[in-house]
Design goal:
Blueprint (H helix, E strand, L loop, with lengths): L1 H8 L3 H14 L7 H16 L6 H23 L3 H15 L2 H16 L3 H8 L12 H30 L1 H17 L11 H24 L3 H11 L8 H12 L1 E4 L2 E3 L2 E3 L3 E3 L2 E2 L2 H30 L1
Parallel strand pairs: 1-5
Antiparallel strand pairs: 1-4, 2-3
């Protein structure tokens, strides 16, 4: 029994739970966040590599130089096992997930929106989305916020949990650094279309399975049949291969109508409709956060059960 307890202690479930509790209690570090330092390092790597061109090959080399040395370093320490491994796993996953930060940003919009302060809600929304928020009404602000919560549930939480469950702390680090580079380089504009191609595609690959498990989690914890129907019929119409399943399933699970036209940098983009049901309102932001929160604990429970079965 004692040997089984030790095996369980150093399985994925315990450090995952501890990291999620730390995130809930502390949130992201307010000062000296390692990802800020990584961003500066990645920018230096980009400047160096662009001396040799801006094509896909150079972009892949830049991605490798930015990500792989850190993953290799952590991986070498991770092989030591024992308490060092447990500490690394908890610390790295804590830094990789952003559940509290996601909730704080969403509630900073929901509170003024519910109070009728549309200008403040639009302003806070502009911090987390790239679309033009200046002309959005209450439903438009709520819709954009719910979409961001659903999509970032995968990017900020479940992707890291998935790769942590597979590879421990090095897996969570790999996902978070790759996702950060996608946010920095994965744009389809003149500067990054070729150079950032590798960052965008690698992020798509790393997110493929987590996104579909996220969509399944949303469906199981909401209006299941509607969520699955929206996922099956609407996700293929969405531009992103991973955001589509997550947002379509989430919209269906919440019984909301999302998607539709949005303005980006002065241009109207005709996005497909997602979900089915009523237009989003301020109260639906908390419902979306609850769906993400409940899905997080579902993942933790699933990991714990898998650990027990594996060591039984």
């Amino acid at each position: 029994m004692s040997a089984l307890f030790v095996l369980f202690l150093f399985s994925a479930a315990v450090p995952m739970g501890l990291a999620l509790v730390l995130d809930r209690l502390l949130g992201e570090p307010r000062r000296f966040h390692p990802l800020v330092g990584f961003g500066r390092y990645a920018a230096a790597v980009e400047r160096l590599c662009r001396r040799f061109g801006s094509n896909r090959g150079v972009g892949l080399v830049a991605w490798s130089l930015a990500v792989l040395p850190w993953v290799a370093l952590v991986g070498s320490l991770h092989t030591e096992g024992g308490w060092l491994r447990l500490g690394l796993d908890v610390g790295l996953l804590y830094l990789a997930v952003g559940g509290r930060s996601l909730a704080e940003h969403a509630r900073a919009i929901a509170v003024p929106l519910a109070a009728g302060d549309l200008a403040e809600a639009r302003s806070k929304l502009s911090w987390i989305v790239s679309r033009d928020t200046s002309q959005l009404d209450e439903s438009g602000v709520a819709k954009a916020t719910v979409e961001s919560v659903l999509e970032n549930g995968n990017d900020a939480i479940f992707g890291a949990l998935f790769w942590f469950a597979l590879l421990g702390g090095p897996g969570a680090l790999l996902f978070r650094l790759a996702n950060t580079l996608d946010a920095m380089w994965g744009y389809r504009n003149a500067r990054y279309l070729r150079f950032g191609w590798a960052a965008a595609r690698i992020d798509d690959v790393l997110n493929f399975l987590p996104a579909r498990l996220t969509a399944l989690s949303y469906a199981l914890l909401g209006h299941t049949s509607r969520a699955l129907h929206c996922w099956r019929t609407q996700a293929p119409t969405w531009g992103s291969p991973n955001a589509g399943p997550v947002m379509a399933s989430g919209a269906g699970a919440l019984d909301l109508s999302l998607g539709g036209p949005a303005v980006y940098q002065g241009n109207l983009e005709e996005r497909p409709a997602l979900g089915a049901g009523a237009p989003a309102r301020a109260a639906d932001i908390d419902k979306a956060l609850a769906l993400v929160h409940n899905s997080t604990w579902l993942w933790l429970l699933g990991t714990a059960m898998a650990s027990v079965l594996a060591h039984a």
